[in-house]
Amino acid sequence: MFKTILSMQKQKRFIIQGIITFIVFIVLYFVLDNLNMSYPDMIKEYGLFLVIINIFLNVFMSALSAFMWNVSTGLVKLTGKEGKGSFVSGFAYLFGLLTYGCTPCVIAFFSIIGITFSVAILPLAGLPYKLLALVLLGIGLVWLIYEANHVKCKIKKEE
């Protein structure tokens, strides 16, 4: 079934959806980076190599998220139900939002919802958290591929 979903990605609808989703995610990831530390400040503190890694990860994670969105949409179109792995890209973004934000903001947010501990400092401008978000996206992709290849459709009994 995953091969069928991959072949659907060539349709105009999926191409447009993928481009729009990619743009939305890339903007969100760049905004998160900027909220954490601007790129010029990141270059001054950590060097150009870290900025290049962050930009590459933003592009890669956005493309992966857009692809997962399209796979999930194809799965829904074929089976009528959404894959359970599709929530991971949104979860990875939420994880990034809570960890890349400025430390005082995150601490204030967590204290509002009753959590009084938070990340005190973000090493390497939040790169470890971005890598963790990438791992979450990878897990979600594997999960979606597994679900697409092991679809169980309900069969209605004839009476």
Oligomer: single chain
Distance between the termini: 29 Å
Structural class: mainly alpha
Please compute the radius of gyration using only Cα atoms: 19 Å
Which percent range fits the helix content? over 70%
Number of helices: 7
Instruction: Name the average pLDDT.
Output: 75
**Anisotropy-based shape:** elongated
Summarize the structure.
This protein has 159 residues and is mainly α.
How would you describe the overall organization of this protein?
With 159 residues, the protein is mostly helical. The protein has one domain (2-149). Helices cover 75% and strands 0% of the residues. The chain has 7 helices and no strands. Helix 2 (12-36) packs antiparallel against helix 4 (48-79), helix 2 (12-36) packs parallel to helix 5 (87-100) and helix 4 runs parallel beside helix 7. The chain is elongated, with a radius of gyration of 19 Å. It starts with a helix and ends in a 10-residue tail after the last helix. The model is unreliable at 114-120 (pLDDT under 50).
